[in-house]
Amino acid sequence: MSDVAIGGFGLAGILVLLALRVPIAFALMSVSVAGLWALLGERPALGALRTIPYQFVAHWSLSAIPMFLLMGAVAFHSGIVSALYSAARLWLCRLPGGLAIASNFACAGFAAASGSSVATASAMGRIAVPEMLRYRYDPGLATGVVAAAGTLGSLIPPSILMILYGTFAEASIGQLMIAGILPGILTAVVYAVMIWLRCIARPHLAPPVDINPGWGERMQALAQIWPMPLLILGVIGGLYSGYVTATEAGALGAFLAIVIAALYRRLNWKVLRASIVDTVIGTAVIFFVSIGAVMLSRFVALSGVPDAIVELFGAGGLQGYSVVLFCGLVFLFLGMFLDPIGLMLIALPVMLPIIDRSGFDIIWFGILTIKFVEIGLITPPVGLSVYTIKTVVGDKVALTQIFRGIGWFLICELLVVVLLVVFPQIALFLPGLMN
Amino acid sequence: MQRTRLRRAMDALITLDLVIAGLALVAMLLHVVLDVVLREVHVPFSGTLEIVSYWYIVALVFLAIPVAQQHGHHIRVELFTASVPPRIQHVIDLVVLLGCVALLALFIWVSTEEALRQTARLAVVEAGTGTIPVWPTRWLVPLSMTTTAIICLMQAYDVLRAIVENEVIAAQPREPLDV
Known about the structure:
- The complex is a heterodimer.
- By secondary structure, chain A is an all-alpha fold.
- Helix content of chain A is 79%, strand content 0%.
- Chain A has helices at residues 3-19, 24-40, 42-57, 64-77, 80-92, 98-111, 117-134, 139-150, 152-155, 160-169, 173-201, 215-225, 227-241, 246-263, 269-303, 305-313, 322-334, 340-358, 362-378, 384-393, 399-422, 425-434.
- In chain A, helix 5 runs antiparallel to helix 6 (98-111) and helix 8 (139-150) packs across helix 20.
- Chain A starts with a helix and ends with a helix.
- Helix content of chain B is 71%, strand content 4%.
- Chain B is built from five helices and two strands.
- In chain B, strand 1 (124-127) and strand 2 form a beta hairpin.
- In chain B, helix 3 (86-121) runs antiparallel to helix 5 (140-164).
- Chains A and B meet through helix 2, helix 3, helix 4, helix 7 and helix 14 of A and helix 1, helix 2 and helix 3 of B.
């Protein structure tokens, strides 16, 4: 059997194991060890298992992951999400579709404290969706906006997915995170405009609400969230100036989040404990899958599968956008059943060598990858983020309604992706200013 | 009786793992913040990178992997087996768990060898003007994998008993993690 065939069987084997509910980390590790064994023999296979796990974990740049997870967990458990939503709601509720627009921007705001899209969507789903339904908003719109805007969690820094991408692609994590800012804001604005226009055209989607907050009330709500910009500026400013590394930015951010929570008397033992336990377990889960992905990278590279795919494109075909389209389709397919971390870590070992040869900017492709991952998670027929929202809202909204509601957001996503491809500067402008 | 004692011992071990991992997380946070602050006031403070990389993060990750196994947090795909009858699911789960144990056994073997090798050399890394020993944390890998393997075996036992006694283990709802 040729090396490429072994590689191909290995990748197919992973999908079979995943379908049998084998935890992703175990599936990746066992296939990689078996594959390396078949390619090179016993010693290299066991050698990979001997050295890779420790060497990979003992890694300075990856220690940013627990720090940012902690920051997000503290922000989440200390109730920043609901404060953000109440403030956004008071300021935006008078607009057509105001509550949906408020949820959208509250998601974007929380995304700047949290590195995760699933956390963002599930937190906002619990608070915002019930209220929109109470005001007789269209259930598709109410759930769709949270599922779609939740994906901003991975695009707006900090972002766990970007730390992983940066590590695997050997790209600057600081530059990646800065590169995510404008596309993140752009996405949020496009969403908001779309909601606004749709609700003007079809007012029954979002009946006007009877909230009429005075300016005092609005200012008071703003006072509850003023530490957020501080937190964001601290983290992003530090990264942007290059003064701190990603790990240091994460540690300072987590520290600030704890101090802010304490100042607002939202910090108690329960909050702290829950934040630490979530962070510790989340870190272990991410690293365990990542260990498997590093081993898979070695196996896939040695099998020559990426070269074979490049050849399939034919000479010169790589200059075009067919590679981008190809990667997008692969993410779309895998996004049907994988969560963001697993999706990213299974796809990257195959994708990165291809992108490397295509000559695209690795930072720009990183932003595009995050977009693809997130789009994959909300695309019918199956999308994991949609199931997250479904679990949160229970029987009140049918799955098909959520998917229908997401349709408009997918069109927006498509628009943003096209803009990113046509104008790479949207992503590359800010990191370009850094040096 | 024996079995409950084993279970209680494992629960205690898991709790201890979680506590130490949590302490490593807090220590990492404080250490890095202190490093940034001291750098700001120009106090030399070396070794942060090495201590974080070779001690805190290693302890945090490897001690918490068994905890995640215990609580069923390791990411897996539920979509395809959702409609499979529970008994067949149990049989699949049993095979999968035993397969995981086999892989872990291999992992324990090679990581123990590696830990022994590093210990024999008393491996260190250079940090600033001095050195920091890194061989002790090598032992966390086999320790972690052994604990995980025992947990998998106990879970396999539960599934086997459910199959034999024709019971159905209620699927634990998996809380979405903050990732």
